[in-house]
Amino acid sequence: MKISDLPYDVVLHILVHLPVVDIVHLLSASRALHSLKLEERIWKDASARYGVCDSTFLGNRSFYIVYTRLLHVYAPLVGMWAGDHSFTGHLIEFRLDPGDNGETGSIVGEAWKFRSPEPEDSDDSQVEEHPCFVCAIKIGFSAHPEDDPDSEGLVRISCCPDTVTPNDVHAGHIHVLSETTQSTFLHTRSGTFKHPDFPEAPLDAWHDKSRAMPRLRPTPQATVDQTSLLLPHPRPRAPVLFAAPSDVPKPAALSISCEFGCLQSHAPVLGFPNRTPYPSRYYPLRLAPSPAVNPFAREWQPAHLTGLWLSFYNMHGTECIFVDWDAAARRLRGLKVTGDEHVPRGALTWDVCTDPCALDPSEHQQLFAHALDEKREYRLYRGVGTTSQRGFLPHQREYTPVILAVISRNELRVFWLDEGDYLKYHRYEGRSTRPERCHHCE
Ligand SMILES: [Zn+2]
Ligand SMILES: [Zn+2]
Ligand SMILES: [Zn+2]
């Protein structure tokens, strides 16, 4: 029996589960499989699994081309990715843009951008901002198939800065970087310290290990050791970030770049000089769905808070927090997916025990005056919050008492008892619930 005699859904099942194999190469290597190219129904079905049912705005290319060249390789990009940029982190969201009369369809990667707060609004604007989506990279076909140098359809990757005209396209690059033990260290007057890795167990609940990488051959990553560069400067005037190997393994990751370096300009600016020569690594970010359970209903559990939340961290602006529930330890943890020079991405921002807690009367009054105002119902959990001086060096970190109040299924407040301050957290509900374009940070 030939493979081409198999029912097409069986063949499809085999093909879509092929690992990093180049599916196009496989099809051309076998004459029996080659005939499958003409079975548009197979490729249309395979494309429909990724939501592509129409190739009008993909230059009317065949579904064989659309699937094998674009979707099979790059559709795993669709979703959220968290970058390991030192201190700040960085988020990129990929989605499938079906295209329209003005624009060719593509897989588009958009950077999340938040406004940097002004000094005068650090006191009163306690509500987080929604992200702006800044186009960073596009993966697709040319608008006209006749422009392709080969009849098979060539996937083009380009960066999308506002300044680029159609005749002046920047080549973009998507690579899968191999696993690595490369780490970043901070060289300071009081010694050198490893910067928290990202991801680093056990604070890696945000990392979605079930999501696949694009089907590209991984680029090997040699580890860099810049320790010798520091020897002439044992006590630097200002802390410097440098590269050295560690014993913390990081899995394969995505790298996203433009030949002219445009993508770095989307990430927040870092105040520390950074000597590290390697590209930023992006990892799949878990987006836990939000169950519609009222937190004051009997069936509610702390696990229902799992997912991505946004909060306005005063002078640092809006940051993204992954809330994780550890059932065994009965603890609810806020993990920073993006961070700042005081408490960086990858660090714990707070950690509370979900056993019911009692308040003493003065705490109770303080909480009501500040954090709970008119709220009638809430759940209160006690724990610690992380603060640090700039640099997050081990001796700078402090763990101060906090009380977390669950206000609704989409709102938390964390009251920092020593500071007499509180932060509001709102669940990130996805981008469809709001207008997609805003102009306040352009
Ligand atoms: Zn490349
Ligand atoms: Zn560019
Ligand atoms: Zn904006």
UniProtKB/TrEMBL annotation:
Annotated CDD domains: F-box_SF
Official protein name in the record: F-box domain-containing protein
Pfam families for the chain: Cyclin_D1_bind, F-box-like
Domain F-box: 1-46
Entries under InterPro entries matching the protein: F-box-like_dom_sf, F-box_dom
Biological-process GO terms, alphabetical: protein ubiquitination
Lineage: superkingdom: Eukaryota
